[in-house]
Each structure stands twice: as C-alpha cells, then as structure tokens.
Design a protein that fits this description.
Elements: E1 4-13, E2 16-26, E3 31-35, H1 42-50, E4 57-62, E5 65-66, E6 77-80, H2 92-102, H3 107-120, H4 136-148, E7 154-158, H5 166-183, E8 186-191, H6 194-200, E9 203-208, E10 211-216, H7 218-223, H8 228-233, E11 237-248, E12 251-256, E13 259-263, E14 273-279, E15 283-286, E16 294-303, E17 307-315, E18 318-325, E19 338-343, E20 348-352, H9 353-362
Parallel strand pairs: 3-8, 3-9, 6-7, 7-8
Antiparallel strand pairs: 1-2, 1-4, 4-5, 9-10, 11-12, 11-14, 12-13, 14-20, 15-19, 16-17, 16-19, 17-18
Helix pairs in contact: 2-3, 2-4, 3-4, 4-5
C-alpha cells in the first residue's frame, strides 16, 4: 500500500485539453472515486496513473517514488477493467495466476497466492471452472482476484460495474466494500454513477471539463456542495428558471413562475435570472396544509417500489418531481388532488446563467 499523489497533471490532444491542472492526494489505504459526466477526464486520469497514457505535464507519485515515466509493469498497480478481460481458454485459477507468473512467482508461493486471492473474493470452489461457466458478477470477482493477487501498491477500477445488471451491481458494491475493509488498499474507482461513488468511497472527486470541482466525503458532497454544478449533478434535480426576489444573508427567496421558493444558498443579486435546482428527494408531499407549505396539484403518479414518484403542478407551466414513501399517508394520491409541498431550503440552489453556460460548455 502507498499514498498516491498527482501534481498539476494535465493531458492535451492538440488544442484539446482533456485533463487540466489536476492535483490530488489519495491517502494510504483510502478508497477514492473519480466521478463526473462523460468527457470530464476521469478515465484519462486513471489511464495516466496506470501508465497507459502519457501525461502532457505533471507528476505522478506512488509513495515517495516518481512513476510518471515508468512503464505500467514497473508501477506495482492492479487494474480492474470494465470488460473483465479474462482469458476464456484458461481456468479461473489460471487467470488469477497469469499476472503472478509474469512477475516470476512460481511453485508453492504461486499456489498460495492464487488460493488466497480466490478465497478473498469467495470463489475458492470455482478455481477449475472456465469464465464462461460463471455469472457476470463472478467474472468480475475473478478480475478483482487477479488484480490483487500480485499485492499491488495501488488498485485502479475502470467502471467495473457498468456491464452488470442492477441487482448484480448492488451485490458487487457490497463485495467491493467488504474487500476494501479487509485489504485497506489505496484505490481509485472511476464511475459516472453517483450512487456507486457515494456508497463505496471514503472521498469523492467530482470532475467537469477536465478540472476538479470538489473533493469531499460523500456526506459533505451531498449536503454541502461547493458550487452550483455539484448541486445540479449530485442527487436527482428538478431544473426550473426563476429570479432572485430577496437576499437573506447567504440565502434568499427565488420567484419561480408565480410562487416563491426559499433557498439556503443564493449567490446572485436581487433581480438576477437564475436556473433553480430543487432536489426531488427534498420535496415532501402532504395531504393537508403545512406551515409555509406550497400548494400544488398532483398531475401524475408512478409507483417505484419503496417510493411513489409524483409530478406536481405548482404554477401554470411549472412542474416538480417529488417522492413519497410507498406505505405512507401520501402514497395513493390521485391526479388532480390538491396537496401541499414542504421543500427544504438547503436542497434549493440558484445557478446563475453564466455558470450554467460555463458548465454546459465544459461538461
């Protein structure tokens, strides 16, 4: 295990800057996710760390060693691919042994490391099977066993769960969490799925346009976004257009289509037109009037298991998506029903138009 440090890392292809001045320190044993929309630079960063892409500038350190110019096989890095990359003609045990053999491991040590790696991913009984005889989740666990068997200093994950169905993804998230608690390996996990990043990581690094937007714990990222891009990217946003009607310290009141919406974070003067982000999960639906509640009308209802999702009309032409527990008092509201909305001001964000344009340009 070792600390991973990126210092002013950047990558350009001609005039196109894919990664722009990224500096990042990942502690020994930390699990950090690189999260962001397509084209944000997260996979390019991972490939530079792995030695598969040469940086245009900057430094990559593992522990105290500068590995920027080292080939991949000299970096002591394990890489888990999106596509598993298992050899179909080799058994599970032989797949795990492949990287060890290339490093000169043989005999009893080879056998012990393969046995240990398969036990770690709970596949001890599957060593003689071929990859085609395994489920997608089992194949991914073989790929992880192969990556950890050489005892790398840093483990890299390149969107390893994206090829799995929803149930297998959930199961593999639990497996990865369990493995991390056992191994304490310095790990970098690339994903575009915020739920994966939030549930797996010690910290999350959100990127847009090749630049870091925020590095924080999952809790801080969700509850205390550093800027409006984070607020609109994390969670399930309702996107509206309004104006700043009042300022109240760091917050204020937004005028949206005829109704007023308090916000705990407003970074624009009164009268400014803004994009308004309201997280769906922060919109609570009530059958009866509540203090400072916003009157609304149910337009559509959709059952989704643990929650019911509603489309509610709050003003002519203005709709919000809201959630309610599927077993609660507001679980069976029919279209045209009058309701009241309780919206947490901390989950309402005002995004100046100039920032929206910048976000759309770089994301």
């Amino acid at each position: 295990m070792a600390k991973l440090t990126l210092e002013r890392l950047h990558k350009r292809y001609g005039e196109l800057s894919v990664v722009d001045d990224v500096s990042l320190s990942i502690a020994d044993g930390e699990f950090l996710s690189l999260l962001g929309p397509s084209g944000c630079g997260k996979t390019t960063i991972l490939r530079m760390v792995a030695g598969l892409v040469d940086p245009s500038g900057g430094t990559i350190r593992i522990g105290d060693q500068d590995v920027t110019q080292l080939p991949p096989n000299k970096r002591e890095i394990g890489l888990v691919f999106q596509s598993y990359a298992l050899f179909p003609h080799l058994s599970v045990a032989e797949n795990v042994a492949f990287g060890l053999r290339r490093r000169g491991v043989s005999g009893n040590e080879l056998k012990e490391r393969v046995t240990s790696a398969l036990a770690l991913v709970r596949l001890s009984a599957y060593g003689e099977r071929k990859p085609r005889e395994l489920s997608g989740g089992q194949q991914q666990r073989v790929a992880i066993a192969r990556a950890v068997a050489p005892r790398p200093r840093v483990l890299l994950f390149d969107e390893p769960l994206s090829n799995l169905d929803a149930q297998l993804r959930d199961e593999m998230q639990i497996e990865l969490k369990r493995l991390q608690s056992q191994l304490h390996l310095t790990s970098v996990f690339v994903t575009h799925d915020q739920q994966e990043a939030l549930s797996l990581s010690d910290r999350v690094c959100v990127l847009a346009g090749g630049r870091i937007q925020q590095i924080a714990t999952p809790e801080d990222l969700y509850h205390r976004p550093a800027n409006a891009f984070i607020a609109s990217f994390i969670g399930k946003p309702n996107r509206l257009v309004g104006d700043v009607a009042e300022r109240r310290g760091v917050g204020g009141v937004l005028a949206v289509g005829g109704f007023r919406l308090p916000s705990a974070q407003v970074d624009a003067p009164v009268g400014t037109e803004v994009d308004v982000i309201v997280r769906q999960e922060a919109v609570q639906v009530h059958r009866h009037p509540v203090t400072d509640g916003i009157p609304a009308t149910i337009s559509l209802r959709s059952f989704s298991g643990a929650h019911v999702q509603y489309v509610v009309t709050v003003a002519p032409g203005v709709e919000l998506l809201a959630q309610a527990p599927s077993t609660g008092d507001a679980a069976s509201l029919a279209p045209a029903t009058q309701v009241w909305l309780d919206i947490d001001p901390a989950a309402v964000f005002a995004l100046p138009k100039r920032e929206t344009q910048k976000r759309e340009t770089h994301a």
